[in-house]
Amino acid sequence: MIKARVDGKDGRHLLALGLSGENVTRLIADEPIFTNLVELGIPDLDLVIIYGKTEEDALAQIKALVETKGR
Question: Alpha-carbon distance 66 to 1, whole Å?
Fold first, then answer.
C-alpha cells in the first residue's frame, strides 16, 4: 500500500492511500490492512481497511475488530 499526505495551500489536508492488486486480493480473503499513520504526521491513529461483499459483511468485520482490539 502506498500512503501520502499533502498539506494544501488552502490549509486543508489530503490523505491518499493506494492499494495494489495484491492488497485487494488480501482484503477479499478477509485479511484487513492495518497501518500506523504516524509516519504521515498523524500521531495516535492507526488505520484499518476492510472489505465486505456487503455492508453487513463489512460491519461484522468491524464488530470483530472492536471486540478484539477495542477499549
Answer: 23
Beta bridge partners of 19: none
E strands in 19-65: 33-36, 46-49
Give the structural domain span for 64.
Answer: 2-69
70: pLDDT strictly greater than 80:
no
The number of folded domains in the chain is: 1
Per DSSP, what are the bridge partners of residue 20? none
In three-state secondary structure terms, 13 is: strand
The whole-angstrom separation of Cα 18 and Cα 58 is 20
pLDDT per position as a tens digit, 16-41: 999 999 999 999 998 999 999 998 88
